[in-house]
Protein backbone atom coordinates (compact mmCIF):
# COMPACT_ATOMS: atom_id res chain seq x y z
CA UNK A 1 0.00 0.00 0.00
CA UNK A 2 2.79 2.44 0.94
CA UNK A 3 4.60 1.58 -2.31
CA UNK A 4 1.48 2.39 -4.32
CA UNK A 5 1.20 5.70 -2.51
CA UNK A 6 4.83 6.56 -3.19
CA UNK A 7 4.41 5.72 -6.90
CA UNK A 8 1.38 7.98 -7.05
CA UNK A 9 3.35 10.85 -5.50
CA UNK A 10 6.20 10.39 -8.01
CA UNK A 11 3.78 10.54 -10.96
CA UNK A 12 2.14 13.79 -9.92
CA UNK A 13 3.19 17.19 -11.21
CA UNK A 14 5.26 19.13 -8.66
CA UNK A 15 2.94 21.02 -6.27
CA UNK A 16 3.11 24.82 -5.92
CA UNK A 17 6.33 26.00 -4.31
CA UNK A 18 5.78 27.49 -0.85
CA UNK A 19 7.25 30.72 0.46
CA UNK A 20 10.91 30.33 1.33
CA UNK A 21 10.42 31.11 5.01
CA UNK A 22 12.60 28.29 6.34
CA UNK A 23 15.68 28.90 4.19
CA UNK A 24 16.77 32.16 2.59
CA UNK A 25 20.40 32.41 1.51
CA UNK A 26 20.16 35.85 -0.11
CA UNK A 27 23.22 37.02 -2.02
CA UNK A 28 25.45 34.44 -0.32
CA UNK A 29 24.00 31.69 -2.51
CA UNK A 30 25.42 33.47 -5.58
CA UNK A 31 28.86 33.49 -3.96
CA UNK A 32 28.54 29.75 -3.32
CA UNK A 33 27.46 29.19 -6.92
CA UNK A 34 30.44 31.24 -8.11
CA UNK A 35 32.89 29.13 -6.09
CA UNK A 36 31.33 25.91 -7.39
CA UNK A 37 31.55 27.23 -10.96
CA UNK A 38 35.29 27.75 -10.36
CA UNK A 39 35.60 24.21 -9.00
CA UNK A 40 33.86 22.87 -12.10
CA UNK A 41 36.08 25.08 -14.29
CA UNK A 42 39.23 23.71 -12.64
CA UNK A 43 38.06 20.16 -13.30
CA UNK A 44 37.77 20.93 -17.01
CA UNK A 45 41.08 22.79 -17.09
CA UNK A 46 42.64 19.56 -15.88
CA UNK A 47 40.76 17.54 -18.53
CA UNK A 48 41.26 19.86 -21.52
CA UNK A 49 44.95 20.35 -20.89
CA UNK A 50 45.42 16.75 -22.05
CA UNK A 51 43.61 17.35 -25.36
CA UNK A 52 45.82 20.31 -26.32
CA UNK A 53 48.93 18.30 -25.36
CA UNK A 54 48.06 15.08 -27.23
CA UNK A 55 50.38 15.81 -30.16
CA UNK A 56 53.24 16.69 -27.76
CA UNK A 57 52.69 13.46 -25.86
CA UNK A 58 52.53 11.46 -29.09
CA UNK A 59 55.90 12.88 -30.17
CA UNK A 60 57.51 12.51 -26.72
CA UNK A 61 56.47 8.90 -26.07
CA UNK A 62 55.77 7.64 -29.65
CA UNK A 63 52.10 6.90 -28.87
CA UNK A 64 49.37 5.64 -31.21
CA UNK A 65 45.93 7.28 -31.45
CA UNK A 66 44.56 4.38 -29.41
CA UNK A 67 46.99 5.17 -26.56
CA UNK A 68 46.12 8.86 -26.82
CA UNK A 69 42.45 7.89 -26.59
CA UNK A 70 43.20 5.89 -23.44
CA UNK A 71 44.89 8.91 -21.84
CA UNK A 72 42.06 11.24 -22.90
CA UNK A 73 39.29 9.07 -21.57
CA UNK A 74 39.60 5.61 -20.05
CA UNK A 75 42.56 6.32 -17.73
CA UNK A 76 40.60 9.17 -16.19
CA UNK A 77 37.14 7.63 -16.20
CA UNK A 78 38.03 4.22 -14.68
CA UNK A 79 37.86 5.52 -11.11
CA UNK A 80 36.07 8.80 -11.78
CA UNK A 81 32.88 6.99 -12.76
CA UNK A 82 33.03 4.01 -10.39
CA UNK A 83 34.08 5.90 -7.24
CA UNK A 84 31.49 8.59 -7.92
CA UNK A 85 28.66 6.32 -6.75
CA UNK A 86 29.95 5.49 -3.22
CA UNK A 87 31.21 9.06 -2.76
CA UNK A 88 27.80 10.41 -3.76
CA UNK A 89 26.13 8.01 -1.32
CA UNK A 90 28.40 9.42 1.38
CA UNK A 91 27.56 12.96 0.24
CA UNK A 92 23.82 12.28 0.60
CA UNK A 93 24.45 11.55 4.29
CA UNK A 94 27.37 13.79 5.28
CA UNK A 95 28.98 17.18 4.66
CA UNK A 96 29.08 17.72 0.90
CA UNK A 97 31.20 20.88 1.05
CA UNK A 98 34.08 19.06 2.74
CA UNK A 99 33.91 16.24 0.19
CA UNK A 100 34.15 18.66 -2.75
CA UNK A 101 36.98 20.63 -1.09
CA UNK A 102 39.05 17.47 -0.59
CA UNK A 103 38.24 16.30 -4.12
CA UNK A 104 39.42 19.47 -5.88
CA UNK A 105 42.68 19.41 -3.90
CA UNK A 106 43.36 15.77 -4.82
CA UNK A 107 42.67 16.05 -8.55
CA UNK A 108 44.68 19.29 -8.80
CA UNK A 109 47.69 17.69 -7.13
CA UNK A 110 47.50 14.68 -9.47
CA UNK A 111 47.30 16.97 -12.52
CA UNK A 112 50.57 18.54 -11.40
CA UNK A 113 52.05 15.03 -11.02
CA UNK A 114 51.31 14.43 -14.74
CA UNK A 115 54.03 16.96 -15.47
CA UNK A 116 56.59 14.66 -13.83
CA UNK A 117 55.71 11.57 -15.90
CA UNK A 118 58.48 9.68 -17.67
CA UNK A 119 56.45 7.22 -19.74
CA UNK A 120 52.99 6.40 -21.07
CA UNK A 121 52.21 4.29 -17.98
CA UNK A 122 53.33 7.05 -15.59
CA UNK A 123 50.90 9.39 -17.34
CA UNK A 124 48.18 6.73 -17.32
CA UNK A 125 48.47 6.24 -13.54
CA UNK A 126 48.57 9.99 -12.88
CA UNK A 127 45.39 10.40 -14.95
CA UNK A 128 43.80 7.63 -12.88
CA UNK A 129 44.65 9.75 -9.82
CA UNK A 130 42.96 12.77 -11.39
CA UNK A 131 39.87 10.63 -11.92
CA UNK A 132 39.89 9.51 -8.28
CA UNK A 133 39.86 13.14 -7.16
CA UNK A 134 37.22 14.32 -9.62
CA UNK A 135 34.88 11.51 -8.54
CA UNK A 136 33.98 13.65 -5.52
CA UNK A 137 33.33 16.87 -7.42
CA UNK A 138 30.29 16.94 -9.70
CA UNK A 139 27.39 15.11 -8.02
CA UNK A 140 27.87 16.64 -4.53
CA UNK A 141 28.27 20.10 -6.12
CA UNK A 142 24.98 19.77 -8.00
CA UNK A 143 23.29 18.58 -4.81
CA UNK A 144 24.61 21.70 -3.02
CA UNK A 145 23.30 23.94 -5.83
CA UNK A 146 19.86 22.31 -5.58
CA UNK A 147 19.72 23.21 -1.86
CA UNK A 148 20.70 26.85 -2.43
CA UNK A 149 18.19 27.46 -5.26
CA UNK A 150 14.44 26.72 -5.33
CA UNK A 151 12.99 24.49 -8.10
CA UNK A 152 11.71 27.50 -10.09
CA UNK A 153 15.31 28.81 -10.36
CA UNK A 154 17.21 25.56 -10.78
CA UNK A 155 17.47 25.42 -14.56
CA UNK A 156 19.04 28.91 -14.58
CA UNK A 157 21.30 28.12 -11.59
CA UNK A 158 22.48 24.82 -13.09
CA UNK A 159 23.08 26.60 -16.41
CA UNK A 160 25.36 29.06 -14.62
CA UNK A 161 27.06 26.11 -12.90
CA UNK A 162 27.46 24.51 -16.33
CA UNK A 163 29.53 27.53 -17.44
CA UNK A 164 32.37 25.92 -15.50
CA UNK A 165 33.41 23.55 -18.31
CA UNK A 166 33.29 26.41 -20.84
CA UNK A 167 35.49 28.63 -18.68
CA UNK A 168 37.80 25.75 -17.76
CA UNK A 169 38.09 24.57 -21.35
CA UNK A 170 39.00 28.10 -22.47
CA UNK A 171 41.76 28.38 -19.86
CA UNK A 172 42.97 24.82 -20.39
CA UNK A 173 43.14 25.17 -24.17
CA UNK A 174 44.31 28.79 -24.51
CA UNK A 175 46.65 29.09 -21.53
CA UNK A 176 47.71 25.44 -21.69
CA UNK A 177 48.53 25.69 -25.39
CA UNK A 178 50.56 28.86 -24.88
CA UNK A 179 52.50 27.51 -21.88
CA UNK A 180 53.22 24.25 -23.70
CA UNK A 181 54.48 26.08 -26.78
CA UNK A 182 56.68 28.47 -24.78
CA UNK A 183 57.88 26.31 -21.87
CA UNK A 184 56.97 22.69 -22.69
CA UNK A 185 54.13 20.32 -21.86
CA UNK A 186 55.39 19.52 -18.35
CA UNK A 187 55.00 23.13 -17.20
CA UNK A 188 51.50 23.19 -18.69
CA UNK A 189 50.44 20.35 -16.37
CA UNK A 190 52.07 21.99 -13.35
CA UNK A 191 50.51 25.38 -14.10
CA UNK A 192 47.01 23.92 -14.42
CA UNK A 193 47.24 21.71 -11.33
CA UNK A 194 48.78 23.64 -8.45
CA UNK A 195 46.27 26.57 -8.19
CA UNK A 196 43.43 24.11 -7.59
CA UNK A 197 44.84 23.20 -4.18
CA UNK A 198 44.31 26.81 -3.05
CA UNK A 199 40.74 26.74 -4.41
CA UNK A 200 40.02 23.67 -2.29
CA UNK A 201 41.08 25.60 0.82
CA UNK A 202 38.86 28.57 -0.12
CA UNK A 203 35.88 26.27 -0.58
CA UNK A 204 36.49 24.49 2.72
CA UNK A 205 36.76 27.71 4.76
CA UNK A 206 34.10 29.95 3.18
CA UNK A 207 31.20 27.79 1.96
CA UNK A 208 28.53 26.57 4.40
CA UNK A 209 26.72 23.25 4.09
CA UNK A 210 23.06 24.09 3.19
CA UNK A 211 19.92 22.55 4.69
CA UNK A 212 19.19 19.37 2.73
CA UNK A 213 15.88 19.76 0.86
CA UNK A 214 15.14 23.06 2.60
CA UNK A 215 13.81 24.74 -0.55
CA UNK A 216 11.77 21.84 -1.86
CA UNK A 217 7.96 21.82 -1.74
CA UNK A 218 7.78 18.19 -0.60
CA UNK A 219 9.28 17.32 2.78
CA UNK A 220 11.45 14.22 2.59
CA UNK A 221 10.20 11.25 4.63
CA UNK A 222 12.72 10.58 7.46
CA UNK A 223 12.52 6.86 6.55
CA UNK A 224 13.66 7.77 3.04
CA UNK A 225 16.78 9.39 4.52
CA UNK A 226 17.72 6.02 6.03
CA UNK A 227 16.83 3.99 2.95
CA UNK A 228 19.42 1.36 2.10
CA UNK A 229 21.75 1.86 -0.85
CA UNK A 230 20.21 -0.96 -2.89
CA UNK A 231 16.65 0.22 -2.22
CA UNK A 232 17.65 3.71 -3.36
CA UNK A 233 19.20 2.30 -6.53
CA UNK A 234 16.05 0.28 -7.24
CA UNK A 235 13.92 3.38 -6.71
CA UNK A 236 16.06 5.32 -9.19
CA UNK A 237 15.85 2.58 -11.82
CA UNK A 238 12.06 2.45 -11.40
CA UNK A 239 11.97 6.23 -11.86
CA UNK A 240 11.56 6.10 -15.63
CA UNK A 241 11.61 9.86 -16.19
CA UNK A 242 14.98 10.17 -14.46
CA UNK A 243 16.28 7.09 -16.32
CA UNK A 244 15.30 8.24 -19.84
CA UNK A 245 16.65 11.77 -19.32
CA UNK A 246 19.89 10.37 -17.90
CA UNK A 247 20.35 8.06 -20.89
CA UNK A 248 19.63 10.95 -23.25
CA UNK A 249 22.37 12.97 -21.54
CA UNK A 250 24.81 10.05 -21.69
CA UNK A 251 24.54 9.47 -25.45
CA UNK A 252 24.84 13.21 -26.15
CA UNK A 253 27.95 13.38 -23.96
CA UNK A 254 29.52 10.62 -26.08
CA UNK A 255 29.73 13.16 -28.91
CA UNK A 256 30.53 16.10 -26.63
CA UNK A 257 33.51 14.46 -24.94
CA UNK A 258 34.68 12.76 -28.12
CA UNK A 259 34.83 16.01 -30.07
CA UNK A 260 36.31 18.07 -27.22
CA UNK A 261 39.11 15.52 -26.73
CA UNK A 262 40.07 15.26 -30.41
CA UNK A 263 39.30 18.73 -31.83
CA UNK A 264 42.79 20.13 -31.10
CA UNK A 265 44.46 17.17 -32.83
CA UNK A 266 42.02 17.48 -35.74
CA UNK A 267 42.98 21.15 -36.22
CA UNK A 268 46.72 20.55 -35.82
CA UNK A 269 46.70 17.73 -38.37
CA UNK A 270 44.46 19.42 -40.94
CA UNK A 271 45.29 23.13 -40.79
CA UNK A 272 48.53 25.11 -40.76
CA UNK A 273 48.11 26.40 -37.21
CA UNK A 274 50.37 26.39 -34.15
CA UNK A 275 49.52 24.78 -30.84
CA UNK A 276 48.95 28.16 -29.16
CA UNK A 277 46.74 29.32 -32.05
CA UNK A 278 44.59 26.18 -31.92
CA UNK A 279 44.25 26.41 -28.14
CA UNK A 280 43.24 30.08 -28.26
CA UNK A 281 40.88 29.56 -31.21
CA UNK A 282 38.98 26.65 -29.66
CA UNK A 283 39.03 28.18 -26.19
CA UNK A 284 37.62 31.52 -27.35
CA UNK A 285 35.04 29.81 -29.57
CA UNK A 286 33.87 27.71 -26.63
CA UNK A 287 33.68 30.76 -24.36
CA UNK A 288 31.81 32.99 -26.84
CA UNK A 289 29.33 30.26 -27.74
CA UNK A 290 29.09 28.30 -24.49
CA UNK A 291 28.31 31.05 -21.97
CA UNK A 292 25.42 32.70 -23.90
CA UNK A 293 24.01 29.30 -24.88
CA UNK A 294 23.96 28.03 -21.31
CA UNK A 295 22.54 31.24 -19.82
CA UNK A 296 19.87 31.61 -22.51
CA UNK A 297 19.05 27.90 -22.34
CA UNK A 298 18.61 27.99 -18.57
CA UNK A 299 16.52 31.17 -18.64
CA UNK A 300 14.24 29.85 -21.39
CA UNK A 301 14.20 26.36 -19.87
CA UNK A 302 12.78 27.57 -16.53
CA UNK A 303 9.90 29.17 -18.41
CA UNK A 304 9.23 26.17 -20.66
CA UNK A 305 9.30 23.82 -17.64
CA UNK A 306 6.73 26.03 -15.87
CA UNK A 307 4.49 25.68 -18.93
CA UNK A 308 5.12 22.04 -19.89
CA UNK A 309 7.83 19.61 -18.79
CA UNK A 310 6.99 17.41 -21.78
CA UNK A 311 7.66 20.29 -24.19
CA UNK A 312 10.89 21.13 -22.34
CA UNK A 313 12.34 17.64 -22.63
CA UNK A 314 11.29 17.32 -26.28
CA UNK A 315 13.04 20.63 -27.06
CA UNK A 316 16.26 19.19 -25.60
CA UNK A 317 15.90 16.24 -27.98
CA UNK A 318 15.49 18.51 -31.00
CA UNK A 319 18.56 20.53 -30.00
CA UNK A 320 20.88 17.50 -29.79
CA UNK A 321 19.59 16.30 -33.16
CA UNK A 322 20.49 19.65 -34.74
CA UNK A 323 24.12 19.18 -33.69
CA UNK A 324 24.63 16.50 -36.37
CA UNK A 325 24.53 18.52 -39.63
CA UNK A 326 26.79 21.28 -38.32
CA UNK A 327 29.41 19.00 -36.78
CA UNK A 328 29.38 16.65 -39.79
CA UNK A 329 29.86 19.45 -42.33
CA UNK A 330 32.68 21.01 -40.29
CA UNK A 331 34.74 17.84 -40.73
CA UNK A 332 34.97 18.06 -44.54
CA UNK A 333 35.78 21.75 -45.05
CA UNK A 334 39.25 23.01 -45.96
CA UNK A 335 38.92 26.39 -44.23
CA UNK A 336 39.60 26.58 -40.49
CA UNK A 337 37.37 29.67 -40.30
CA UNK A 338 34.34 27.92 -41.81
CA UNK A 339 35.07 24.81 -39.73
CA UNK A 340 35.14 26.86 -36.53
CA UNK A 341 31.90 28.69 -37.37
CA UNK A 342 30.04 25.42 -37.97
CA UNK A 343 31.48 23.83 -34.83
CA UNK A 344 30.33 26.91 -32.91
CA UNK A 345 26.73 26.57 -34.14
CA UNK A 346 26.77 22.85 -33.33
CA UNK A 347 28.16 23.59 -29.86
CA UNK A 348 25.32 26.06 -29.26
CA UNK A 349 22.71 23.37 -29.94
CA UNK A 350 24.66 20.87 -27.80
CA UNK A 351 24.85 23.12 -24.73
CA UNK A 352 21.59 25.06 -24.83
CA UNK A 353 19.54 22.29 -23.22
CA UNK A 354 22.02 21.31 -20.50
CA UNK A 355 20.55 23.31 -17.62
CA UNK A 356 16.99 22.24 -18.44
CA UNK A 357 18.01 18.59 -18.64
CA UNK A 358 19.79 18.66 -15.27
CA UNK A 359 16.92 20.59 -13.67
CA UNK A 360 14.40 17.95 -14.78
CA UNK A 361 16.70 15.19 -13.48
CA UNK A 362 17.13 16.87 -10.09
CA UNK A 363 13.42 17.56 -9.66
CA UNK A 364 12.52 13.97 -10.60
CA UNK A 365 14.17 12.52 -7.46
CA UNK A 366 13.93 13.12 -3.71
CA UNK A 367 16.42 15.55 -2.07
CA UNK A 368 18.01 12.66 -0.12
CA UNK A 369 18.75 10.85 -3.41
CA UNK A 370 20.10 13.71 -5.51
CA UNK A 371 23.85 13.27 -5.13
CA UNK A 372 23.47 9.53 -5.77
CA UNK A 373 21.16 10.15 -8.75
CA UNK A 374 23.62 12.63 -10.24
CA UNK A 375 26.51 10.22 -9.62
CA UNK A 376 24.72 7.51 -11.61
CA UNK A 377 24.11 10.08 -14.32
CA UNK A 378 27.81 10.95 -14.26
CA UNK A 379 28.66 7.22 -14.24
CA UNK A 380 26.67 6.54 -17.41
CA UNK A 381 27.76 9.73 -19.15
CA UNK A 382 31.41 9.26 -18.34
CA UNK A 383 31.67 5.53 -19.01
CA UNK A 384 29.95 6.02 -22.35
CA UNK A 385 31.14 9.52 -23.23
CA UNK A 386 34.51 10.06 -21.61
CA UNK A 387 35.54 6.41 -21.30
CA UNK A 388 34.46 5.06 -24.68
CA UNK A 389 34.18 8.28 -26.73
CA UNK A 390 37.84 9.36 -27.06
CA UNK A 391 39.06 5.73 -27.02
CA UNK A 392 36.66 4.52 -29.73
CA UNK A 393 37.47 7.52 -31.91
CA UNK A 394 41.18 6.74 -31.55
CA UNK A 395 40.68 3.04 -32.35
CA UNK A 396 38.59 3.80 -35.46
CA UNK A 397 41.11 6.43 -36.55
CA UNK A 398 43.98 3.92 -36.31
CA UNK A 399 41.95 1.26 -38.14
CA UNK A 400 40.93 3.65 -40.93
CA UNK A 401 44.35 5.27 -41.39
CA UNK A 402 45.27 2.80 -44.14
CA UNK A 403 42.27 3.97 -46.20
CA UNK A 404 41.86 7.63 -45.28
CA UNK A 405 45.39 8.58 -44.21
CA UNK A 406 45.45 11.87 -42.27
CA UNK A 407 41.67 12.16 -42.76
CA UNK A 408 41.04 9.03 -40.68
CA UNK A 409 40.43 11.16 -37.57
CA UNK A 410 37.74 13.19 -39.37
CA UNK A 411 36.10 9.95 -40.54
CA UNK A 412 36.12 8.59 -37.00
CA UNK A 413 34.61 11.78 -35.55
CA UNK A 414 31.84 11.64 -38.15
CA UNK A 415 30.93 8.05 -37.24
CA UNK A 416 30.40 8.94 -33.58
CA UNK A 417 27.69 11.50 -34.45
CA UNK A 418 25.13 8.67 -34.72
CA UNK A 419 25.05 8.74 -30.92
CA UNK A 420 23.03 11.97 -31.11
CA UNK A 421 20.18 10.09 -32.82
CA UNK A 422 20.05 7.67 -29.87
CA UNK A 423 20.07 10.62 -27.46
CA UNK A 424 17.10 12.17 -29.29
CA UNK A 425 15.13 8.92 -28.97
CA UNK A 426 15.62 8.80 -25.18
CA UNK A 427 14.56 12.44 -24.75
CA UNK A 428 11.47 11.75 -26.86
CA UNK A 429 10.60 8.74 -24.69
CA UNK A 430 11.12 10.92 -21.58
CA UNK A 431 8.50 13.32 -22.95
CA UNK A 432 6.10 10.41 -23.40
CA UNK A 433 6.76 9.33 -19.79
CA UNK A 434 5.83 12.80 -18.53
CA UNK A 435 2.57 12.60 -20.50
CA UNK A 436 1.89 9.11 -19.06
CA UNK A 437 2.44 10.34 -15.49
CA UNK A 438 0.13 13.29 -16.06
CA UNK A 439 -2.66 11.10 -17.45
CA UNK A 440 -2.30 8.69 -14.49
CA UNK A 441 -3.13 11.36 -11.92
What does this protein look like?
This protein has helices at residues 2-11, 28-61, 65-91, 96-114, 120-134, 138-148, 154-161, 163-183, 185-193, 195-206, 222-225, 229-238, 240-270, 275-307, 309-330, 336-351, 354-363, 370-404, 408-416, 419-440. It has 441 residues and is an all-alpha fold. It has a single domain, classed as MFS general substrate transporter like domains (Growth Hormone, Chain: A), CATH 1.20.1250.20. Helix 7 (154-161) packs antiparallel against helix 14 (275-307). The longest helix has 35 residues, at 370-404. It starts with a helix and ends with a helix.
Structure characteristics:
441 residues, 20 helices, disordered N terminus, mainly alpha, 0% strand, Growth Hormone, Chain: A, single chain
Computed over alpha carbons, the radius of gyration is: 21 Å
Oligomer: single chain
Q: What is the ordering of alpha helices and beta strands?
A: HHHHHHHHHHHHHHHHHHHH
Under the CATH scheme, the architecture is: Up-down Bundle
Assigned CATH class:
Mainly Alpha
Strand content: under 5%
CATH third-tier fold name: Growth Hormone, Chain: A
Could you give me the name of the CATH homologous superfamily? MFS general substrate transporter like domains
Average pLDDT, rounded to a whole number, is 84
Helix segment count?
20
**Pairing-aware structural class of the strands and helices?**
mainly alpha
Poorly predicted ranges (pLDDT <50, ≥5 residues)? 1-23
The largest sheet is:
none
Domain Major facilitator superfamily (MFS) profile: 32-433
Protein name: Putative L-galactonate transporter
GO cellular component, one term: membrane
InterPro entries: MFS, MFS_dom, MFS_spinster-like, MFS_trans_sf
